[in-house]
């Protein structure tokens, strides 16, 4: 296959150094093997042996930030500081091979790496542009409504975390749960998915387990009890099911 990865390439889901691989699809593909949403040209996907192509949200990589290739020092530092990383690849028709476009890293790792590169004027400018792009990407009114709904359903969730969850989930063009049709209707299940993902990535060892080589479903199973306890604590109710 010369255009986009398929099930026959499921063994290429990780690089030789253990990093997860993300492919930029160059044509329409089958629906996501988990959420069944259509995957089109330009979508970023991963591959699993059992389910085939998955969107980034179902791959549990949608919380990571994209760092394009080109700055070796920044890439090296961000990789060093990020517990979980993924390599982004795209098929080159002219060279008949996949070429590295950049990496996905944790936001805190990228910020720390940028701070270490502040002596470089170009790095400072890149950071200003990135922050400007983020501000432009956020629909403030929608984020505010989404945050209010989170606070309504999870009244014991700290206010700073409510804001962080809403902004992360509702970023435009991100494909995250906050941009779904259900989320735009402030559906309780969509809000629960966003809060559950935050709990999993921020308050458990989930990312560390993935980085260590654990399969996604096994890692989720290990952190599931803690996620359920957190959701119950934040909502003031009884333990519930961990968000899928």
Task: Briefly summarize what is shown.
This protein is of the alpha+beta class. The chain has helices at about 70-80, 105-115, 120-135, 140-155, 160-170, 180-185, 190-205, 205-210, 215-235, and strands at about 20-25, 45-50, 50-55, 65-70, 85-90, 95-105. Helices cover about 45% and strands about 15% of the residues.
Polypeptide structure, described:
This protein folds into two domains: 7-120, no CATH class; 138-235, no CATH class. It contains nine helices and six strands. It has helices spanning 72-81, 107-116, 121-137, 140-153, 159-169, 181-184, 188-203, 206-211, 216-235; strands at residues 20-24, 44-48, 52-55, 65-68, 86-92, 97-105. Strands 3-2-1-5-6-4 form a six-stranded mixed β-sheet. Helix 4 crosses helix 5 and helix 4 (140-153) crosses helix 7 (188-203). The radius of gyration is 18 Å and the shape is globular.
Average per-residue pLDDT, rounded, comes to 82
User: Describe the biggest sheet?
Assistant: 6 strands, mixed
Low-confidence stretches: 6-12, 173-183
Total tally of structural domains: 2
Q: What percent of residues are in strands?
A: 5-15%
Helix/strand structural class: alpha+beta
Q: Rg to the nearest angstrom? A: 18 Å
The number of helical segments is 9
The ordered string of helix (H) and strand (E) elements is EEEEHEEHHHHHHHH
Kindly state the number of beta strands: 6
Termini, distance in Å? Answer: 32 Å
**What characteristic shape results from the CA principal axes?**
globular
Q: In order across it, which strands form the biggest sheet?
A: 3-2-1-5-6-4
Helical content band:
40-55%
């Amino acid at each position: 296959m010369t255009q986009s990865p398929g099930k026959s390439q499921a063994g290429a889901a990780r690089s030789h150094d253990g990093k997860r691989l993300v492919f930029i699809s160059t044509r329409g593909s089958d629906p996501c093997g988990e959420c069944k949403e259509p995957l089109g040209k330009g979508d970023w996907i991963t591959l699993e042996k059992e389910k085939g192509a998955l969107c980034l949200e179902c791959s549990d990589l949608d919380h990571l930030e994209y760092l394009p290739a080109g700055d070796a020092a920044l890439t090296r530092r961000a990789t060093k500081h990020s517990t979980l990383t993924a390599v982004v690849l795209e098929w080159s028709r002219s060279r008949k091979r996949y070429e590295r476009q950049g990496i996905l890293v944790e936001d805190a790792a990228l910020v720390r790496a940028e701070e270490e590169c502040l002596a470089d004027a170009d790095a400072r400018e890149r950071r200003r542009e990135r922050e400007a792009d983020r501000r432009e990407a956020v629909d403030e009114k929608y984020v505010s409504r989404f945050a209010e709904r989170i606070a309504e359903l999870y009244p014991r969730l700290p206010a700073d975390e409510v804001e962080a969850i809403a902004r992360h989930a509702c970023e435009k063009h991100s494909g995250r749960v906050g941009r779904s049709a259900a989320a735009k209707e402030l559906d309780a299940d969509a809000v629960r998915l966003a809060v559950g993902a935050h709990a999993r990535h921020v308050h458990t060892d989930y990312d560390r387990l993935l980085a260590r080589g654990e399969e996604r479903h096994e890692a989720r199973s290990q952190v599931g009890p803690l996620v359920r306890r957190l959701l119950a604590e934040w909502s003031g109710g009884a333990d519930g099911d961990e968000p899928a």
